[in-house]
């Protein structure tokens, strides 16, 4: 941590702050220039709240030199993590996680049909929404617990582990019992209460990046879960909010190498939600594999034009099958198995 | 609702879609040009999910002409709403809501002391965080239920109604019983489960704008609460996330006249969180009153340099008193009482 | 300047870099911690390109502690600058600069009529576009040199100094001779060639903030002009590009206190372009004065519905007159003369 | 074009506007609902400025249904364009354009050495900056005309056509004579004067996307050049400005399929400037090819740690060679030759 002092701060004020900092257990190294005095703090600065230092009227700015996340940090865990769930593995040293399925679970026929088709195409996880976060209170909110039942049925029929979104802490018990991978949606990425509760489980969490979350904040949300003892986390890039309105969000593929550099956690990409356009799924899924993602989560619907939600971003099972085939040589080119 | 068809769509495809739309109870008016066919939908389009139409492969785009919010919409409720709570009123026809207090409740002495001082300065609400949403799991998370007790004590001593943030649905019962104004923080603006639960109460909700929420999404979150029957909502602009990093967020004061145009709900401004800098609170609070806000929520701390959180954005009680005095002529200039 | 070294960098690599830096004339102060080594650079770091240091593979990051601008920096010029032009003054110690006029100059009758009306309302500068930067090559591009002539005529009739936008370096000669205040538009804020040429003149430059320019980049563009010897610069905040689409841009009023803190240059606000909506001009102009701006630049058109450009953001002369009257008590409240 | 009228607009006002629109040569089709009246405009709406309609106080909003660009529009030119320059071709039906070279031309030895190396690696164009747009007036601004000479020498030695940035209209003559591909930098994407002048030449223009330019604005800038008669344009995605600060910009790879859908112009990707980090060039270059880009522009420097600019985003020639080799199977997978 580095503290920049205001020009002309009297020496006794600098001494006073230095003493206060030393009292908090860090070593203070002053760097004194003509125009500026800098205090370099060495030691365990994790317990020092920078807003506390910045509130000192002689301080211009506080700069971090170390990342604020620990358990998620590659520095302290250099080997990439492998997450094992439902007989599958997710991580840099595993084959690509191919998660596919409809936006919403609509009926037994629909979910079981799609599950069989995506499995045949090569998918190793089934996704499907039972509880849907919708911007409007008047839009279809999902089949809820009935949807969960249908997902379980599809799992039984196909053997695919299921991935589905949780929206409230009071559902953790049932999700813990019945779901393989619990998805935390973008809008809940900083629902700290939910994160904390999920930290108490040992379930695999698919943590979507928030619409306007920095990479650091995203990793801090993973840290919330990990701080509770649950280290089974898969990150999911799904597009960020920018000024560009042609696509629903802007898929940030540079986040994949960034996460690789900063963390040991696996990271997958959701090209469907990122763009909101079905015809962009194919090129962006290919790009996601080329950039080094550990998997793809893709919306597949047997009848997109009549889907109960997000039909415009869903592809048909036949298109998905073709996509998976087309991705094989790209995966091979970047050294990944499928 | 307007549906733009792809160039060269066969007439029978247009007819098929028109029929499907008519079956949903809307009237379809085609506008046929050389290069484009447009379908103008008239009637109650609120039950038609636009993603369903966009999934039709002959559709280029769906455009909304009416706002998707109803109960929050000024069109159906032209008179500005007045919220009555704790003996106070908030709204265009009431005096300014002056909400002030520390970021976190720290001790009885602290909260009661600050409460007395801000009341003397002119504040009519006391704010203070008991449950704190912090980016890091290792940062101070608030005194929680003990903090609530201290707030209640400060209310008893000063008579000021209390405003404090809720973080989880399971706390609604105690908040409903003990708190005057329940704050929903920016990070929870789209925690739909929480919103729905708050819709079942009749408490006043201070709904902060999400970091990357559009004005329309913000009003849709108000609509979530209102759809449940609770119309006691006060909106709070607190800065949005942009590329500019000099301030913590970018305070969007144009949101105030926008809300005035679109909705009947009161709207207040939080200059402290918006900028993260105590010396910006004064000019931006003045600007907020000049632009027409119905109130201000300001962080005031007796000892900012030793605050347990956000000290760098807090002002001292004496500075707050001066600010309130300086604001009087501005409020008068825009026709507001204080 | 602070250089953060990679964990585990061998001492001899640190020494090598320190020597290279010392050779560039700065003093290197190492701060050595268990996990991190930091080099604090003291002295004139302005000639050291940080990208040169960051290219060193042992360097994690380079952090600036001093602002990169000098002539525009308040640190080296604590007194606020006053710009004198056309018999008027602009700056913190002068009365508000009230710049008004149409988006485009359309005819003699139009510009002279509006000039007389805004003068009567209290304006002390006339604005009007002769050369128009339009997103489409097919849109009206302005009356060009004929427009300049008409502006000069309006100046002669009313005595108001004229403010108009330059679009190309080859027009500097005529602008230098005929125009009082040369406006650099948002899209040209980093047209470095144009800035450099303007630095060779001694004309007053109204430098608009770029659509996605940080406050620091904006001041660096001022620095470009000042580096050439021309210190007559007035900054103009006109909204930045964000995800919010309800307004054309998001007016960043926090930029005003920020500029006050960082620079001695005057800063004015353009509420018309910021929002693109005429009915937002009134509240945001008031907010701009309350926040401490040194002036306002407002689009006024005698017949907005038939304006050749940007009619939707123009107000009528009678509305402008009312606005100026309404602003008086706000200006007085923040200690400004009008 | 669609015009949304305000609720309750009197019929005679609607008629008046309809007549005015009809007088401009478009057919007006009203769609009348209970709460809303919409006017659908059919015909050549390109001459109607929407700000003119929006200025009508009875109009809520104007919506475009057709893209405002024509010559760049795929609708009117369905076949992908192939640009022929310096014995090379760029476009969907050609092999990948591999443009490589240093940020700045520094010396004969440097530029000729790098040119030979990137050619050996597989590059078919040489890039290098002679005129450098730098944020600071005190930073190295390029060797200017001497730099151009050195580029020409490198071309003579290697046969590689040269790509270099123009910064001012007065240099067009020399660029037209000596340069193969004239680059327009991100900061000049809306320097309309420069675009117009380039439209008068027949040189190939590499048009970089502005930092905060929408895809539509980017295509409108291409339209500016094309409107002058020069259709030899290659678009270049190089990252946009967002709230994320870990990378210098956010590379928007979804822009590639978007451009494919909207335009016939070729589009290449610059992973070096997008991220500002050399170690991200490799994964993002692969992703760019996988997503369907027509080429790559990559910064290559023989000695990044001593580069005069942007060393931290440059890779060494040996790394570039490896990258090109690694890209071959990805290119093959998406049906592209190299």
Molecular structure report:
Four copies of one chain form a homotetramer. Chain A has 338 residues and is α/β, with parallel strands linked by helices. Chain A has two domains: 2-63, Phospho-2-dehydro-3-deoxyheptonate aldolase, domain 1 (Alpha-Beta Plaits, 2-Layer Sandwich), CATH 3.30.70.1140; 74-333, TIM Barrel, CATH 3.20.20.70. Chain A has eleven helices and 14 strands. Chain A has helices at 11-23, 50-54, 108-121, 145-158, 172-178, 192-199, 215-227, 255-262, 271-275, 278-291, 317-333, and strands spanning 2-5, 27-32, 37-42, 59-63, 83-85, 88-90, 97-101, 125-127, 162-166, 181-184, 204-208, 233-237, 267-269, 295-299. Chain A has an eight-stranded parallel β-sheet. A four-stranded antiparallel β-sheet of chain A has the order 2-3-1-4. Chain A has a two-stranded antiparallel ribbon with strand order 5-6. In chain A, 59% of the residues are buried. Chains in contact: A-B, A-C, A-D, B-C, B-D, C-D. At the C-D interface, helix 2, helix 6 and helix 7 of C face helix 2, helix 6 and helix 7 of D.
